Amino acid sequence: MKIIITGGAGFIGSNAASRYLQLGHQVVVIDNLSRDGVRKNLEWLRPQGSLEFVQLDIREGASLAQLFEKHRGADRVLHLAAQVAVTTSVVSPREDFEINALGTFNVLEAMRRADMQVPVIYSSTNKVYGEMTEIGTVEKNGRYAYATLPEGVSEHRNLDFHSPYGCSKGAADQYVIDYHRIYGLKTICFRQSCIYGYRQFGAEDQGWVAWFMIASQLRRPITIYGDGKQVRDILFIDDLLNAYDCAFEAGDRAVGRAYNIGGGPGNVLSLLELIAYIEKRQNGKLPFDFSDWRPGDQKVFVSDIRRAQTELGWTPQVDCECGLGLLYDWVARNLDLFTEPALVKA
């Protein structure tokens, strides 16, 4: 097969590209190489198989349309390119809008104009549901939890964008779904929770699981925004890639649908619990500071993944303890990847 991956040199994209290259498929990676670490990911990918790399920003609609026309015979599309941090969106809302909303529109239009009748998965976010302040939270065992919603947040939950990032990703999310309804594109929307794993160059404002792992091993400062009791359902990268494959293979069952994709209620972790895990691995106390809550930060987000389980036949296989161990050990083996000044900023 030929598979197009926007943002294919990023954390998720490079893992997906590697999987498909190892299976003998042809992969077209589109990336503007603006994120820290992505050039290292691209170097890692090059020897793995039939890779075509195109340095292109998805905001460049005309160039993107030409590229998709060239590859109109592709079999699958993964649209992963994005501006990924809430904090960045607050500082630079126009840039955030242009990358996430306009960039996704450009991808959809490129596929429509090329008459590509192949499945495309869009990586949306749990932030489309907003802060959900009306859903009561309680503190249990030193971390926050929903007072109700024992299975987590389902796709029936009303969308409520909070922060420029939520707005831009949410707008794109709805365009993706509507391009199936109006134009018949075979779109699938994944509202992803906290993804973590290999080749994640986490930073303070995004990718907190990887950032804590990297910063702790490099003895960099760690700041917890809020009180550290906030929780997410975390999902290991291999499980996310399995979900992509399940959706692609589901055919018309998945087309036009949105899926909440995360670790679910069985894989919930708080910031303080991650600190405790690292302290156990390092057999010592880990210094860190507290700071104010950040805009749009949910106290709790846990995905109800039953739709994906029922319709896609997918369920996470890597539990928290195993996944954290895999990531911690990978970081320990690859500390040289994180020693450039741009990759160890606090």
Describe this protein's structure:
Helix 1 links the parallel strand 1 and strand 2. This protein has eleven helices and 15 strands. 39% of the residues lie in helices and 18% in strands. It has a single domain (2-343), classed as 3-Layer(aba) Sandwich (Rossmann fold). The protein has 346 residues and is of the alpha/beta class. The strands form four sheets. The chain has a seven-stranded parallel beta sheet with strand order 3-2-1-4-5-8-12, with helices on both faces. Strands 9, 11, 13 and 15 form a four-stranded mixed beta sheet that branches.
Cα radius of gyration in angstroms: 19 Å
Helical residue percent? 25-40%
- Report the order of strands and helices: EHEHEHEHHEEEHEEHEEHEEHEEHH
Question: Which CATH architecture?
Answer: 3-Layer(aba) Sandwich
Determine the structural class based on helices, strands and strand pairing.
alpha/beta
Would you count the extended β strands for me? 15
Low-confidence stretches: 341-346
Q: What descriptive keywords fit this protein?
A:
globular, disordered C terminus, 7-stranded parallel beta sheet, 4-stranded mixed beta sheet, 11 helices, 346 residues, alpha/beta, Rossmann fold
